Amino acid sequence: MSRRRSWSAVRAGVTDWAIAVCLAATLLVTGLSGQHSATDLDLLGYALLVAGGLALAARRRAPVPVLAVTGLCAVGYQAAGFDVPAVAYLFAVYAAVRAGHRTLTIAASVAMLAALPLAALASGLHDTGEAFAQARGALELAWLVAAGAAGEALRQAERRADEAERTREETARRRADEERLHIARELHDSLTHQISIIKVQAEVAVHVARRRGEQVPEALLAIQAAGREATRELRATLEALRDDDTAPPRGLDHVAELVERARAIGLDATLTVEGRAHGVPAAVDRTAYRIVQESLTNIARHASATTASVRIDCRPDALAIRIDDDGKATPDTAPVPGVGLLGMRERVTALGGRLRAEPRGEGGFTVQAELPVEQSS
Predict the structure, then answer these.
(1) 127: phi > 0 → left, psi -120 to 50 → alpha, else beta; which?
(2) Which tens digit of pLDDT belongs to each residue from 157-187?
(3) What confidence tens digit (pLDDT) does each residue in 33-61 have?
(4) To the nearest whole percent, how much of the chain has pLDDT over 90?
(5) SS3 letters across the chain
């Protein structure tokens, strides 16, 4: 997403410069066609014609300064005796109105309409009517209104498009939340009760067999263990499905709690944080928490590990996360991607990041994630 926006910005910059250069050349040619002599005042007029056109290269980034520069250049070359239309100023009006500076643009345009006749008089015209006619030709009121109207129309269209995009995203998110909660209810109603019955019956059977001094069948012990594991997995799945935006947000500030919880169950867990997590987007913040949570849960359940380390590196452009353990995984053992690992990968990929989950060369398992961080200006 960020790469696409960068390419779009580069393309827009090239387009702006192309328009600015072409317009500057057009204004210069128009000025040269007036058969002016090469006096200092005429050279100043040529420079103002070119400067007014080239200033449009910055119209997206700084529409108000460009409006001022193009307006002053138009007044300047009119005062130097160049009867050239203020086309660059019309482009600047369009850009300023599109950026939302309507009141300022109207005030500047009124000032331009008053200044151009004075500039025409200063150029040597002694006939007031002729000066006003030249000023009117330089900045036709109809074209000025059209430029402002075009900028306002495009601004409104962009605003409606942004609003429609936000509405679509909110609708899609609401539908996803409703579907997720519906699935959670269905799982709870259809599976939780049945799994609980299996788990309770297996535990009762094991308890009765042991009280009688009988040998407990391996199949019964396997059913008991599977029932407990299925209950835990189902509870975790239901919690994940019910975790929506109405729940208190969990992020990097809560990772220390996950590490403390891992220590409480006997895992020697450590946490190292490099840099300052300032201005991290909410989605990245939540995803980082989920990665650490899922990794520590997998270590506690499946890794047979005694130690685990969590390292978070807060860089200006990315958030790097690494979780290592000293469990039973070996380099020649291919990891079996479970639901938790697939969920982590989906979260990271959705944010444009990268995830590696594989056995370490010295034994154990490592999970490494890198999430891009786009700082707001």
Answers:
(1) beta
(2) 878 877 777 777 777 777 777 777 677 666 6
(3) 865 555 567 788 888 888 988 988 888 88
(4) 11
(5) CHHHHHHHHHHHHHHHHHHHHHHHHHHHHHHHCCCCCCCHHHHHHHHHHHHHHHHHHHCCCCHHHHHHHHHHHHHHHHHCCCCCCCHHHHHHHHHHHHCCCHHHHHHHHHHHHHHHHHHHHHCCCCCHHHHHHHHHHHCCHHHHHHHHHHHHHHHHHHHHHHHHHHHHHHHHHHHHHHHHHHHHHHHHHHHHHHHHHHHHHHHHHHHHHHHCCCCCCHHHHHHHHHHHHHHHHHHHHHHHHHCCCCCCCCCHHHHHHHHHHHHHCCCEEEEEEECCCCCCCHHHHHHHHHHHHHHHHHHHHHHCCCEEEEEEEECCCEEEEEEEECCCCCCCCCCCCCHHHHHHHHHHHHCCCEEEEEECCCCCEEEEEEEECCCCC
Structure tokens at 273: 């944080």
Kind of pairing, strands 354-359 and 318-325? unpaired
Cα dihedral 361/367/372/373 (nearest 10)? -120
**Regarding beta strands 307-314 and 318-325, do their DSSP bridges make them parallel or antiparallel, or are they unpaired?**
antiparallel
CA of 120: how far to CAs of 19, 115, 131, 365, in Å?
27, 9, 5, 80
Helix H, strand E, coil C: the string for 80-107 is: CCCCCCCHHHHHHHHHHHHCCCHHHHHH
Residue with tokens 């590696």, as numbered in its chain = 356
User: Which pLDDT band holds residue 2 (cuts at 50, 70, 90)?
Assistant: very low
Give the integer Cα–Cα distance in Å for 40 and 38: 7
pLDDT tens-digit readout, 224-265: 777 777 777 677 666 666 665 455 567 888 899 989 988 888
CA 21 – CA 24 distance, rounded (Å): 5
Pairwise CA distance, residues 337 & 238, whole Å = 20
Sign of the torsion formed by the C-alpha atoms of 315, 320, 326 and 332: negative
